[in-house]
Amino acid sequence: MSSTRLETLALCLQNVLADKLANVDQQLDQLIITVPPANLLPVMSVLRDHPELGFEMLIDLCGVDYSIYGVEPPSEQGREGKRFAVVYHLLSIRHNRRVRVKAFPEDDEFPVVDSVIDIWPSANWFEREAFDLYGIVFTGHPDLRRILTDYGFIGNPFRKDFPLSGNVEMRYDPDQQRVIYQPVTIEPRQITPRVIREEHYGDSE
After folding, report:
1. What is the 8-class DSSP label of residue 119?
2. Angle at which helices 40-49 and 3-17 cross, to 10°
3. How far is CA 162 from CA 63, 79, 131, 158, in A?
4. What's the pLDDT band for 2 if we cut at 50, 70, 90?
5. Which domains does the chain have, with CATH numbers?
6. Helix (H, G, I), strand (E, B), or coil: what is residue 9?
7. Which of 63, 69, 114, 183 is 20 to 30 Å apart from 101, CA to CA?
8. H-helix or E-strand containing 48?
9. Which residue intervals define the domain NADH:ubiquinone oxidoreductase 30kDa subunit in the entry (predicted)?
């Protein structure tokens, strides 16, 4: 999207949504708006229904964990040190433009935002994925359960503090004739690749 079109869209968003936005930014030729969780549903409804905006399609939704083992990334306006974010990618077919929306749940220990499934039904599986992988809860979702991991899975594997080997492992027990779960028995190890080169390899003759 050209810089002129981005500026026009930014101005329109600020005029229509006013104080409901925490921040408006531009990165990689795309407009990014940050919305407080309390304003999420009203803002999303306006983004879809306002004739000058018309973002009728939710093309993606994902979670983000900003925690990097205690090392904070550069401050982002509207984030205020919050650990988790939900990112929405919206498309206006009518106006041929996109916008990215970010919402930062208030509680890092129990991240919660409202479900947008009543605005875009396509959010269904996206929200379940963010719930499964990041532990973000979507209030109002009609069927919020894991979608990629097993029902007995412990933890959220896309969180930065999730162990690489996981918390539990599963195997088939021939005596019990069923799959069982048990604590991980894999010993962590560091693999150093062995490089073998012939003598004088690469030397010019």
Report:
1. T
2. 120
3. 15, 22, 15, 7
4. confident
5. 3-162 (3.30.460.80)
6. helix
7. 69
8. helix 40-49
9. 33-167
Return the structure tokens found at 132: 């499964």
Give the tokens for residue 114: 């409202």
- What amino acid is encoded at 10 in this protein? A
* Tokens representing residue 78 in the block: 């509207």
CA-nearest of 161, 136, 155, 166 to 63 is: 136
79-116 confidence digits (pLDDT tens)? 678 899 999 999 999 999 999 999 999 999 999 999 99
**Residue type, position 144, single letter:** L
Query: SS3 of 84, please?
Result: strand
The DSSP element (H or E) to which 17 belongs, if any, is helix 3-17
Q: How far apart are CA 183 and CA 85, in angstroms?
A: 30
Pairing between β-strand 84-92 and β-strand 97-103 as defined by DSSP bridges: antiparallel
Q: Which residue has the higher pLDDT, 92 or 166?
A: 92
User: Which of 1-5, 12-16, 189-193 shows the lowest per-residue confidence on average (mean pLDDT)?
Assistant: 189-193
d(CA 63, CA 61) in angstroms, rounded, equals 7
pLDDT, the chain, mean: 87
Q: Give the separation between CA 147 and CA 124, rounded to whole angstroms.
A: 11
Give whichever of 20-24, 28-32, 36-40 has the largest mean pLDDT: 36-40
Compute the Cα dihedral for 80, 86, 108, 20 and give only its sign: positive
Interacting residues of 118 by C-beta distance below 8 A, sequence separation 6+? 140
C-beta of residue 122 within 8 angstroms of C-beta of residue 89: no
